[in-house]
């Protein structure tokens, strides 16, 4: 616990939001509108209600993963553990709910246990970071390998197919035209925003990314908050792994393949800096929509899938360059 005086120091240390809406903050939403309008003009199928619903449903898992990785990016760290953590959670939940491998029928408790396993793996990432002083991308890459190893052991050569009615209903049942998975993603974005905006963990994540040294000098123990952020991120990845299992009706070791890069892409495109201290959940949520609208639009207008990855890569480079350029200009010495 910290004193009120420490909170004042932290508030002064971390980057303060500018009054009004800056061009950098309004850029991603404007880009989303421009991209949507452009593809709507090129394809009548793209602007249909059914396709918009499809975009939202497809974005659900990525949005949940991006919620987790955004907190890590706000600290100025990199998290590459999502594939392994999601794989472990996917296999675990498939074996804990009703399935073809055993007699377990834990239902919601099984889902919670799978998320708890993922949170534990996230905690390991945080502990390795603060105790071993190893760069975050190395520790999380190692934890991803551990998660994949656990998933492979639980898989044991036989794919677990789920028969649990609740989990199977998430991608099928709809509320107001959107699947339950999409509403779960909305809930995660809301919870992530509330944590970021109204809790000490969210404020300190920003402060660590913006001015960790000043935060430490103010008397705040930074290490526990770093571990807590990675644990929170692991929980988000675990829920995403459960969501993938519900989509496939089966647990797969590779359930999280590619989601780490896709989530970092979405967060950066939305305005969350890789260096930390700027952006947030809502920024990253806009980035998720940009990536998914772009991917869907390219398919609708007939662009080859082989080009889509290249286009996304160029967008990431452009987004990072646009975010870093103002900082470089501010840091230049005037002669």
Automatic annotation (TrEMBL):
Superkingdom in the source lineage: Bacteria
Major subcellular location class: membrane
Topology relative to the membrane: Multi-pass membrane protein
Keyword annotations from UniProtKB, A to Z: Cell membrane, Membrane, Transmembrane, Transmembrane helix
Keyword hit for Transmembrane: yes
Transmembrane segments: 26-43, 55-74, 80-99, 106-131, 137-155, 175-195, 227-246, 258-274, 281-299, 305-325
Subcellular location: Cell membrane
Keyword set includes Cell inner membrane: no
GO molecular function: transmembrane transporter activity
Gene Ontology, cellular component aspect: plasma membrane
Alphabetized PANTHER family for the sequence: ABC TRANSPORTER PERMEASE PROTEIN YPHD-RELATED-RELATED, RIBOSE IMPORT PERMEASE PROTEIN RBSC
Protein's recorded name: Ribose transport system permease protein
